[in-house]
Design a protein that fits this description.
Helix content is about 75%, strand content about 5%. The chain contains ten helices and two strands; from the N terminus they run ααααααββαααα. The chain starts with a helix and ends with a helix.
């Protein structure tokens, strides 16, 4: 759903840069930790701003053809708003999303930033090249950027996946059986674990999610690094 991806990515990467400056300048925190903190805060900010779009995307993706409850994006917005408690209906499952997004986004930026700084420090000739807008600054080569971004995505997804499963179950709660047993994050975690266990419950679909997440994060971080050069931000 492209209507969600564009604002989500824009808000997340913009917020990351701003939070990183605030944490470094105002709090005096630098090094690898400020990447983790800024990444977590940026992810939470992006999620809160775009969560209604994610809710609608989940509902439209889940419905079966021939048994359509929603005819389109606008209809889904209207139906959720009128039948599920107004704006509150759009934020069902927000708590596990925020709890899961904090480590996901935090470890994504932390892992990528750490791999980048360590790689350029230990093997600058092999992994790095001069920056397009500032030849005195070294940046990762494109294929190395892709690799580091993919690794960052895989690690972050593994850490936060059970909460992602919880979020999806709560988002779809109104149209799934036993919805009354999945009203809160704790209830949903207990329900999924109790009925399906860890591998087939909390981590169900993880391998398939890697196929989406790893290239997505690889391209996202590579594009981010390229746009910083293009806009002369290095």
């Amino acid at each position: 759903m492209m209507i969600r991806i564009f604002p989500y990515g824009a808000i997340q990467f913009t917020a990351f840069g701003q939070y990183k400056k605030i944490i470094k300048n105002e709090l005096g925190v630098s090094g690898h930790i400020h990447r983790l903190m800024a990444g977590s805060m940026a992810g939470i900010t992006a999620v809160i701003c775009t969560y209604p779009l994610d809710m609608v995307r989940a509902r439209l993706a889940f419905q079966v053809k021939g048994d359509d409850k929603y005819t389109g994006i606008i209809h889904a917005f209207k139906t959720i708003y009128t039948k599920e408690g107004g704006m509150q209906g759009f934020y069902r499952g927000l708590t596990p999303t925020i709890v899961g997004m904090a480590p996901y986004a935090g470890f994504s930026f932390f892992t990528f930033g750490t791999l980048k700084s360590v790689g350029l420090a230990q093997a600058p000739a092999l992994l790095g090249r001069p920056c397009l807008d500032n030849p005195d600054v070294l940046v990762l080569k494109t294929h190395v950027n892709l690799l580091c971004g993919g690794i960052a995505g895989a690690i972050a997804q593994t850490i936060s996946y059970p909460l992602d499963v919880t979020r999806r179950r709560m988002q779809l709660g109104a149209i799934l059986p036993d919805s009354e047993k999945c009203l809160t994050m704790i209830q949903t975690l207990k329900y999924v674990y109790g009925n399906h266990g860890i591998r087939r419950g909390l981590y169900r679909g993880l391998s398939l999610n890697y196929i989406r997440c790893v290239p997505s994060q690889a391209v996202a971080f590579t594009t981010y690094e390229f746009m910083k050069q293009f806009l002369h931000l290095n």
